[in-house]
Specification:
The protein is α+β, with helices and mostly antiparallel strands and 1223 residues long. Among the domains are: 98 residues, no CATH class; 56 residues; 181 residues, Ribonuclease H-like superfamily/Ribonuclease H (Nucleotidyltransferase, domain 5, 2-Layer Sandwich), CATH 3.30.420; 66 residues; 70 residues, no CATH class; 99 residues, no CATH class; 27 residues, no CATH class; 111 residues, Beta Barrel (Cathepsin D, subunit A, domain 1), CATH 2.40.70. The chain contains 41 helices and 25 strands. It has a seven-stranded mixed beta sheet, with helices on both faces. A five-stranded antiparallel beta sheet has the order 1-5-4-3-2, with helices on one face. A four-stranded mixed beta sheet has the order 18-13-23-22. α11 packs antiparallel against α12. The longest helix is centred in the last third of the chain and has 30 residues. It starts with 15 loop residues before the first strand and ends in a 9-residue tail after the last helix. This is MULE transposase domain-containing protein.
């Protein structure tokens, strides 16, 4: 467009239009070439006549800054965006006629209504009104997206095919696709949308939920696929693929094979995992679909050696024969056995022995009944004992348990129709992933992609069968096939033709019937008899599998998305998380290692066989010799320009342009001279980089903002005779040289001469020269702004060199601890306490020994990384939800056991029965006389039952009396507990007793370390040098050290525990059962006895408060007064009420879940014991942030500089004040 100001005819002419839409289209068509656009500003309706009046205003109208936040902290949390609003009042009136048959335009009075307060835009794409997509375009974009077309390709297509979408940006395409997806979801979650769409599309679907309503598995099958299955039910192929959805759920593909030997998808299942339960659920659901459609059971089911899948097949399809994939078996043998032959490097015949070994394996798989045992014996004689491990693997892993599923002698007894490998399932995996595109889809989007692949497959299958129905293979036109053409597939006929060719063999072996059994086709012997009798083939000779012609929910519960499964290969995988590519198998890694590598090519002399740093390279020291020659001649002079690191790199790049060429007198625009200037500029940039940084050509181009690659067309342009080829010598130009000429040659074409460059550099150097005051101020601002930034260490070092007060002594340490207090409070508390202890001691040189600002940040980074992975001592969790009395059990008890049936016919324990136990009776309970009589009769008839009930009730009473006695002792005892080096003395009162086993040692299986909360119990103690944490439930507790503790296991004996963690805030003492077992000690949960590995008795654990206790100590409650004297714990009751609590309004606001001011006033009036100091005024940052609205902008980012000088000027003007850096 290129307008610098609006033309005089900026206002659209007055006139009338048929509709409001046509009026808006007309005025926007008028505004587009003039650099602005109209939007609906205000719309009103006359209450009497019903006429509408609309004000169409400039789209840059409105109040500028109306949506900005006054809160500075809130503004910092918002996205960095911009606004096109300028408050422009340019507008027109549009009114509806009295009879509402047309609209007309009228200009508004006032000069401000006809004049813009801004300049025209450079292009129509700056205005969303001119980029609006029509309904036709939106429909086309939605259809293309549903077909799997990438958004970038959709934009290309729309620009080529639609005139109304010429101004659409890539973001507009993304928005349209997202809107289409929201329309498909119809306001539902993805799982509800999936369930509804499966039902609406007619899919047979099954969804598995857990007890929380979370989806754990989904199975679905298209009705057309089930129709194919009803026609061809003989074969099933099962295999799982991965990386198809964001929940990491394996996708089980259930595949069938039709008469044309084409694969068709029967059903798909997203499983919760590859365990036996998951396969059983999927196959049971498939079995229910079989029953619903009256489908015959499969003859053969083919899988890989997945034990869970094999067991599920034998349970759900017992009548079907299960076979194993021979391809997977071959690759498994290759992966396991081939390394043993590769390790024999000194033996040149290892490859030949491996080929012989692998040949024996194949001959065993293809052997007949009478030769199988003989082949196995020959294998053992040939390779045992040298390769006994490999031969044992073949026998124990494959042949002994699965020879009926692998060896040809047994496999050919069932009709597999030539399918003994699952390779066709791998092809289906590739087909699906070509439609899925990425592995981060939810189940709804994954189902949509699978549906498109499935519909295309079904259409192709139908077309293929239709073609074979009307076509006849030319080579099979004899009378033998005359009656079956159009009824049997071409593949079956070609298989029969191969058997026909066997009749030409001299010695045809006797018929075993294995070919007819396995393939369902007539063998050569059958064909021979038909030919002799001059009879044609009939349909009865072919299995029904080969024939072309044959007779042929709403979910009320709320659904939750499946849990995302953890992928154990993510940590070691080099493949992107969103990629659908599978991980390489072991045999692929071995085969790739065996492939010969291509010889290396030198990047200097371009010869093969060595690299640029090799001694074989004739040009290895050419750069060094050239620089030495230039230094001696004294001809290479480069001016050093001061500025920031970014400015210096740009200025030095320009400075090298004025250096004098020393080797040859070349023209300034010669490609060789241009490349030399490029290399010198790059060398200057290399010298400016810190030691150890990446210094490559691509890194230099990226830092300078240069293009990283060019197209083949641009390289061809460089090789043109008029450009670079005329300067080429005996060798070809390299890509690096062509990139340099393409880049710098274009940039330096704008420079008038070398003197002009020198003058411009002088002006730039004077402009960016800072003062010392500006240098200190800029470093101080950078230091304060980067307390938690990655480059904090670098900025702190610069600040210390300038002797800034904020960077001296331990001030950086205190600033850093304050900055990370919100990230890791325990780290801050540990080091602040340590700092205060050192300051209180005031030993000589303690400030030098204490970590400075750089050291403390390094300690924090190490501890933060260790916390994410694992602690150096193995972070442990004391959960008190361990194995307990069921420690020896191996079953995972996911659900509680059913309670036994009582004599009252209810399911509960005898001690819980209100008819038997008086203590279990409730106040309002009334017994049923008939039940009481029935219980009495049963107990009289069975004396043993009477004795068992009495014994259980007696134990229940003893346990209840013992528990009451222990709890009464706990409540009445309190004494002061000694602490080591108390720092602060506090008084506390509590109305709730602490954990009764706080001073005892319990035996727990949920902890992987010993824990003690009393410092006085330690015989030896070593404080931790760095903070360590104990994970207890969802909380983190500080570990202050480790040491040795003795526990009293009886009145005289002591038991020693090593490496006990001191955690004063932990609520009990723990002896780890896992460490006991690791040391050889055993614990019997039934009797509670602890014995050593020789069976010698050590001690007995006694149960207190439902926990096994090794050392039981009665509870001691600590209470201290203000002066440090011993006192008693205060218990509050109705006779001794708690004193009123007094705090400010903000404190009560935070305590009570951020209540507002009116609620606090009502709380003071209606609740006892609450006092508020001062006025009730709340200024809470969290509440302010919670009420903030997020503003999203769709403006494109600022364009980059097109030329070096233009970019240098813009960057210099926008830089902050910097200080001098010398390179």
């Amino acid at each position: 467009m290129g307008l610098t100001e609006f033309p005089d005819d900026c206002l659209p002419p007055e006139g009338q239009f048929d509709s409001r839409e046509s009026l808006l289209a007309s005025i926007n068509a008028w505004a587009a070439p003039r650099g602005y656009a109209f939007t609906t500003g205000k719309s009103t309706r006359d209450p009497r006549s019903g006429r509408r009046t609309v004000i169409f205003a400039c789209d840059r109208g409105g109040r500028p800054g109306a949506h900005t936040s006054k809160d500075q902290k809130l503004t910092e949390r918002q996205r960095s965006t911009s606004s096109r609003i300028t408050g422009c009042q340019f507008s027109i009136n549009a009114k509806e006629s009295l009879d509402k048959s047309y609209w007309y335009i009228r200009h508004r009075p006032g000069e401000e209504k006809s004049v813009h307060n801004h300049g025209p835009s450079l292009h129509i794409t700056a205005h969303p009104a001119h980029r609006a997509l029509s309904s036709t375009d939106q429909s086309a974009i939605g259809n293309l997206s549903s077909a799997g077309i990438a958004p970038k390709d959709i934009r290309t297509y729309m620009r080529q095919s639609s005139q109304t979408a010429q101004g659409a940006t890539q973001q507009d395409i993304y928005n349209c696709i997202a809107q289409r997806r929201r329309e498909l979801l119809a306001g539902q979650s993805t799982m509800h949308a999936l369930a509804n769409e499966l039902d609406n599309e007619g899919f047979q679907s099954r969804i598995q939920l857990d007890h929380d309503g979370r989806v754990t598995a989904v199975l679905f099958a298209h009705p057309a696929s089930l129709g194919y299955l009803n026609t061809y039910p003989e074969l099933l192929l099962l295999d799982c693929t991965y990386k198809t959805n964001k929940y990491k759920m394996p996708l089980l593909d259930i595949i069938g094979v039709d008469a044309c030997q084409r694969s068709f998808c029967i059903a798909f299942a997203f499983l919760g995992g590859e365990d036996e339960d998951g396969y059983i659920w999927a196959l049971n659901q498939l079995q229910s679909i079989y029953e619903l459609y009256d489908i015959r059971q499969a003859l053969v089911i083919l899988t890989d050696r997945c034990l869970a899948c094999i067991k599920a097949i034998s349970r759900c399809f017992p009548a079907s024969k299960s076979l194993l994939c021979t391809w997977h078996a071959n690759k498994a043998v290759l992966s396991y056995c081939k390394p043993a032959f590769d390790r024999e490097d000194e033996d040149s015949n290892s490859n030949e022995r491996w080929a012989e070994f692998f040949g024996y394996w194949h001959s065993i798989l293809g052997s007949k009944d009478e030769t199988f045992d003989q082949q196995v014996e020959e294998l053992e004689k040939r390779f045992v004992p040298r390769y006994v491990k490999e031969v044992s693997y073949i026998r124990e892993t494959w042949l002994d348990p699965y020879k009926e599923k692998l060896v040809k002698a047994w496999v050919d007894q069932d009709a597999h129709f030539g399918n003994v490998a699952t390779s066709r399932v791998e092809g289906i995996h590739a087909l699906l992933k070509s439609h899925l595109k990425k592995s981060t889809l939810d189940l709804f989007e994954a189902w949509r992609a699978i549906k498109q692949a499935l519909l295309n497959q079904l259409a192709e299958l139908q077309a293929n069968q239709s073609r074979q129905h009307i076509r006849t293979p030319i080579e099979l036109s004899g009378t033998l096939y005359s009656t079956i053409r159009g009824w049997v597939s071409h593949e079956a006929l070609r298989q029969v033709a191969k058997q026909h060719k066997r009749l030409n063999e001299k010695d045809l072996p006797s018929c075993t019937g294995s070919f007819t059994k396995s393939h369902g086709l007539p063998c050569a012997h059958t064909l021979q008899s038909l030919i002799e009798e001059d009879l044609p083939l009939r349909l009865q000779h072919f299995h029904t599998h080969w024939r072309l012609r044959r007779d042929n929910k709403e979910i009320g519960q709320v659904l939750i998305e499946p849990r995302r499964r953890l992928d154990q290969l993510v940590a070691t995988s080099r493949i992107s998380q969103s990629s659908t590519q599978r991980e390489p198998s072991t045999f692929e890694a071995i085969e790739s290692a065996l492939r010969p590598k291509a010889p290396s090519t030198c990047s200097k002399c371009h010869q093969q066989g060595h690299i640029m740093t090799s001694r074989k390279c004739p040009l290895r020291y050419s750069d060094m010799l050239q620089r030495a020659t230039a230094a001696i001649a004294g001809t290479a002079q480069t001016a050093a320009i001061a500025g920031t690191a970014q400015t210096a790199a740009v200025l030095e790049t320009i400075t090298v342009a004025v250096t004098t060429e020393t080797t040859e007198n070349l023209r300034y625009d010669d490609p060789r001279a241009i490349y030399r200037r490029y290399v010198k500029a790059r060398d200057c940039w290399y010298k400016a980089q810190p030691r150890g940084s990446l210094k490559t050509n691509q890194a230099y181009r990226k830092a300078m903002g240069l293009p990283l690659r060019y197209s083949k067309t641009e390289y061809d342009w460089c090789l043109d005779w008029k450009q670079m080829s005329r300067s080429c010598g005996s060798r070809q130009w390299t890509k690096e040289e062509m990139m340099a000429v393409k880049t710098i040659g274009n940039y330096y074409s704008t420079i008038a001469d070398e003197d002009d460059v020198a003058r411009q550099l002088s002006l730039l150097q004077a402009r960016v020269e800072p003062t010392d005051w500006a240098q200190e101020r800029e470093v101080l601002e950078r230091y304060r702004a980067t307390l938690r930034a990655p480059n904090r260490t670098k900025v702190l070092t610069e600040a210390q060199k300038l002797n800034l007060p904020d960077a001296q002594d331990l001030r950086p340490t205190q600033d850093f601890l304050q900055a990370v207090s919100s990230i890791n409070p325990s780290f801050t508390d540990y080091w602040v306490n340590k700092l205060e202890d050192e300051a209180a001691t005031a030993s000589p040189g303690w400030k030098d020994r204490f970590p400075n600002g750089i050291k403390i940040s390094e300690i924090f980074e190490r501890s933060h990384r260790a916390k994410k992975v694992s602690s150096n001592r193995g972070t442990f969790a004391a959960t008190f939800q361990g194995k307990g009395e069921d420690h020896d059990g191996l079953k995972d008890k996911k659900a509680p056991k059913d309670k036994p049936k009582c004599v009252c016919d209810e399911r509960h324990f005898y001690s819980e029965c209100q008819y038997l136990n008086d203590a279990a009776k409730q106040a309002d309970w009334t017994p049923d006389q008939s039940i009481s009589q029935r219980i009495k009769k049963r107990l009289e008839e069975d004396p043993s039952l009477q004795q068992r009930v009495n014994r259980i009730l007696q134990r229940s009473r003893e346990h209840r009396d013992k528990t009451k006695a222990s709890e009464s002792q706990v409540r009445g005892i309190a004494f002061a507990q000694k602490t080591e080096e108390p720092r602060k003395r506090t008084t506390f009162s509590t109305s709730k007793a602490p954990y009764p086993l706080r001073d005892s040692f319990i035996l727990d299986s949920g902890s992987d370390t010993h824990i003690c909360n009393n410092r006085d119990r330690f015989a030896t103690f070593i404080p931790t040098k760095e903070p360590e944490e104990l994970f207890a439930g969802d909380g983190h507790l500080q570990i202050l050290g480790y040491g040795r503790v003795f526990i009293r296991i009886d009145e005289e004996a002591l038991f020693q525990l090593e490496d006990v963690a001191f955690v004063p805030s932990f609520h009990t003492n723990v002896a780890s059962l896992d460490l006991f077992l690791a040391k050889g000690y055993n614990w019997n949960p039934a009797s509670g006895t602890v014995t050593d590995k020789h069976g010698t008795y050590i001690c007995t654990s006694v149960r207190h408060f439902r926990q096994p206790v090794l050392e039981y100590n009665e509870l001691r409650v600590m209470a201290q007064t203000d002066n440090g004297q011993q006192g008693n714990a205060t218990a509050f009751s109705s006779s001794h009420p708690r004193p009123p609590q007094e705090a400010t309004a903000e404190t009560w606001h935070r305590r009570l879940g951020h209540l507002n001011a009116p609620a606090l006033e009502n709380l003071v009036q209606n609740a006892q014991g609450i006092k508020i100091k001062g006025p009730i005024k709340i200024e809470c940052e969290a509440c302010s942030l919670g009420k903030a609205r997020r503003i999203v902008s769709r403006r494109r980012p600022h364009t980059q500089a097109p030329r070096p000088f233009w970019r240098v000027y813009i960057d210099i003007f926008s830089l902050h004040i910097s200080y001098k850096v010398t390179y």
